[in-house]
Design a protein that fits this description.
Length: 124
């Protein structure tokens, strides 16, 4: 059993205090917070990751340090980050996918539309 907490950010933070105490904190978010384009692009990116590329950005595939300690703690090098394309953005913007495990066959992937402040698991 893994110690975990589910809550919201109203009136204070849940995620960081939980992580500082060895508990995984996940913030519940309404489904409509994620626009369809972001999730669709994340699913397309997941397929590209499984194929080993090609990727649109040079930083795609770099090691993700999990400094925010929101994702489950794993050894350095387990997580890699990728940019989820944002329609209309001229740069990488805030959308990311973080995958854990082997680079071309990740065990788990998470989507963030707010630059690592929250994550949603993306199924293959």
């Amino acid at each position: 059993m893994v110690p975990s907490a589910i809550g919201n950010q109203t009136g204070g933070s849940l995620i960081r205090p939980a992580s500082f105490n060895g508990v995984y904190g996940f913030k519940r978010l309404p489904w409509n917070r994620y626009d369809g384009a972001g999730i669709a692009n994340a699913r397309d990116l997941r397929a590209t990751i499984d194929q080993g590329g090609p990727f649109h950005y040079s930083r795609d595939g770099v090691v993700f340090g999990n400094r925010e300690r929101i994702l489950p703690s794993m050894p350095r090098g387990y997580y890699h980050e990728y940019t989820v394309r944002t329609p209309g953005a001229r740069d990488r913007a805030a959308r990311r996918m973080v995958c854990g495990g082997p680079r071309t066959t990740p065990e788990v992937c998470y989507y963030s539309d707010d630059h690592y402040q929250s994550f949603r698991r993306v199924r293959p």
